[in-house]
Structures are given as C-alpha cells and as structure tokens.
User: What shape does this take?
Amino acid sequence: MSSIAFFSRDDDRLIPTRFAASLWAPGTLNGPAVCAVAARAAEEEFSATGFRPARFTIDLFKVARDAPTSTRARLIRDGGRIKVVEVDVLQSDDDSAPVTVARSTTVFVKESDNPPGERWSRPAESIRFRPPDSDPDDHYPWYGAAGPDGEITWSQDMGSHQDGRRKWLWTRAVSTVAGEEPSPFERAAISGESTSLVCNWGSAGIAFINCDLTVALSRLPVGSRIGVEAAAHVEVDGISTSTTNLYDLDGQFGVGMVTGVNNAAATIDFTAVDTGGRYTEA
Assistant: This one.
C-alpha cells in the first residue's frame, strides 16, 4: 500500500497532507482530495450489497483550505432500486464553527440484467485510447496528446504537452486517508476530477477552475490505473463545459463532466511551475 495519501487521521477529523495541496493558491486543497473524502464517506456509511455507485456529483462551491476536515452524510432516498446519499465536506480551524466547502450526491443503483434489444455504442475501432507501455510499479502519471498521425504521444513531462491539442491522462489514484487502500469508487472520483485538467489545459496553461464534478459509472474500474480522455470542450463568456471518457485496462467504464469558470488571474503554467514531488505523486 502506498504511503501517499491526501489526509491523515486525527480522531474524527482528517488532516490534509502536502499531497492535498493545490497549485491554484497557497494553503488551499486540490479538487481530487475534496472529491475523494466525499466519495469515501458516501460509500463507507451507506453502501449496500447488490447496489453500485452509478453517479457521483459534487459541487465545489467554496475554496477548501489546509484545515482539519470532516464529513456529514445522510440518506436522502432508500428505494428498492435507487439509493441517494448526500455528503457535506466541512472544515474548521481550532474551535471555530465548521464551514461547508462542498456537497456531494451519490446515487447507488441496484444491479440487475441488461434489458433485451440492441442499442448503439461507440464502435471499438473508433476508440483511440491505448495506455502507454509503462512499468506497473511506476506511480507517476502519464500525459498524452494527439500526435500528427492521430496516435497518442505519451510523456511524463507536463510542460511538453502545454498546447492546444486533445489530451489524455493515465493516472494512479493515491489513498484518501493514510493507511487505507482507496476503493474502486474512490479511484473513479479522484481520477475523474482530472476531467478539468485534460479538457481545460491549453497552450497558455490552465485558467478555468472547475466548480463541480460529475462521474457516471456503468461499472467500477478494475486495477490501479485509470485513463481520462478529453471527449468534448466548449467555452463561451468565461464559462466552460467539458466531458471525458474514463477507461481502465478492460475498456471504458464511465464518463466525467465538469463546469469551469474563468480563473485567469491565477493561471497555472505547467512550463513554469515545479510539477514534480508531491504534485506529480498525488
């Protein structure tokens, strides 16, 4: 089990580690860390045999800071086929009242057989995602971009992919809490948050910050690596909408979607900042 985690445990609170730090501003947390803690709470408190987390949506409406973090989960709907769970992500310093920085909704759906009939799906020959040949013990992410021949060119150097081409990411989610192995659902939420990175990252860096994330899952991912493929990106008047296709070694298992807002004043230029160490590992 990797020693890298977003949070350490302190009784009922979670303490952010350096791997949860964001590049947007000092003393703030990155999106994957916040998504991870919300997904963990929903699954830990309300998972049920025969039900699968099929959709995870989180609204990131307040900057999460380097402060003790906790969650508050509640069951909104307890049906025979659909269960709905809400989770608040709360933060507080010392004896101050907790502040809600994010709220997630997780929909658990009962597993069954597919209905009869034929339906369209993307032909296998149109899928361009192929993971890079890499050492299975390599924990660092790989960044891909569309090459001149249409094939994906892979590199672990972020600066080499700072351009306007379509992008891919082959990533390994770290642990949410130190000493715990992340569940497949946590991995999907953590890696799915990279929808914002692969779609909003352009030739000048990344200047759209996502205020939400939705991950829709037909199945849970297998293995430790997840591929994130830019599928669509639209930006108008400082607002962007982006979608990705999510893969593991067995193929596509879900999709991601984010809404972005102009944050150009804090643009992250990956050719000018140190993306090694805790950022690359997390």
Q: What stands out?
A: The CA atoms of residues 19 and 277 lie 9 Å apart.
